[in-house]
Amino acid sequence: AIATILERRLRDLGVTSKVPKNELAAVVSALANGLALERAADPTLPRELLARSIELIVTGLRTTEHEAGRQ
């Protein structure tokens, strides 16, 4: 389910990825699980940290795509 949502969202943003969607979904899932554990230990961590982290991943994918297009 996560892979399909990510694929759809990236497509909506016009981002293509060479990373297989199931691997990208595993990274996001691991990140979500890890942040949940961290928030359990430190409730002061912002709830939006996962969304900001995913935004960084998407920005990285865009940058990688843009860099590849210039070569």
Model description:
The protein is built from three helices and no strands. It is mostly helical. Helix 1 (2-12) crosses helix 2 (21-41). The longest helix has 21 residues, at 21-41. It starts with a helix and ends with a helix.
Report the principal-axis shape.
Answer: elongated
Average pLDDT works out at 89
Radius of gyration: 14 Å
Main sheet properties: none
Q: What's the number of extended β-strand segments? A: 0
Number of helices: 3
The protein's oligomeric status is: single chain
Which stretches are poorly predicted, pLDDT < 50 over at least 5 residues? none
CA distance, first residue to last residue = 34 Å
Secondary-structure-based class equals mainly alpha
Beta percentage is under 5%
